[in-house]
Amino acid sequence: MSIPDEIRQIVDFYDRYYDVAAKYELSRGRKIWLGKKENRICRFCGRNAEQTKFNTTAHAFPEFIGNKSLLSNYECDECNNFFSRTIEDNFDKFTSTERTFYNVDGKKGVPSIRSDDHKSRIEMTERGLRITSQENSSFVALDEVNKELTVKRKTPKFVPRLAYKCLVKMALSMMPEEDFECFKELVQWIMIRDFRGDKIEADSLLVQKSFTPVSRVVDHVAAMLFRRRDDNIYLPHFIFNLEFSNFTYCLALPFSKKDAHLQGKMTSYPSFPARLHGRIPSCNIVYTYLNLSKNEVVSDLEATVVVPLKAKQEA
After folding, report:
1. Does 136 map to a domain?
2. What are the two backbone dihedrals, phi and then psi, of residue 122, each rounded to the nearest 5 degrees?
3. pTM for the full model?
4. Is there a domain that residue 129 lies in?
5. What residues contact 264, with CB distance under 8 A and at least 6 apart?
6. Which of 72, 101, 106, 153 would bridge 60 by S-S if both were Cys, CB 3.0 to 4.6 A apart?
């Protein structure tokens, strides 16, 4: 199958301006440990094994996105616990609806979801997706003509900026040691203990999200970290691309000490293509730009998921 011109142009962009600093294709049953087990130092708080403990198995990416493989030797128990109950918890809530429909098997299995009135429920069982809904419910709508199921629900309360920091933490976890020094300020930012104490003014914490609307579920987790080749050009120093199931999240890492020349400048970059992009005929990728700058609890965000029940026939 030939590569569409749009995708070829994006790949050419990254080949021209960026090097791949790190890349991981994760598969079940194969463990990848980041860092050495000897003489451990937590890369987030800077403490060694005499100052803190390293007894917990730390996942470089949250288990709830399907990561069973990428583990970290340089994340201490205290930091692991902090990330789990703060930034990871918020990204978990932010993505829970989509992960249910695309059968993303995390630490506690595939999440189930309920309507706000608790009268409708969607869960994954051994026999597949089970939907319990009252007649005329606005929670679930079936389009028999287009063979699509639409679900609308309010996302559980979450803080968008903390969800953004979860993506940043994943990138920092897989970053090579020689590049980590450039992001000390970024580490300090994600380590702020109480989000209400985050006084940094940021109104453009942007994430490019893409979704491949196919009925089959893609059991896949992958990540790439791109490093700018020429520090004199007006492009972000590092770009992180995460792919799990049918979704990708792409963002430029903020606060690099090598991005001082970008202050006040507008920069743009394309989202790196997902594995499925261009490989499925008549499949329109859905692109969304997310602004996750808000640093307060959001309780009114509506999540809408449209699931194709049957592959549409080509004309």
Report:
1. yes
2. -130, 130
3. 0.88
4. yes
5. none
6. 72
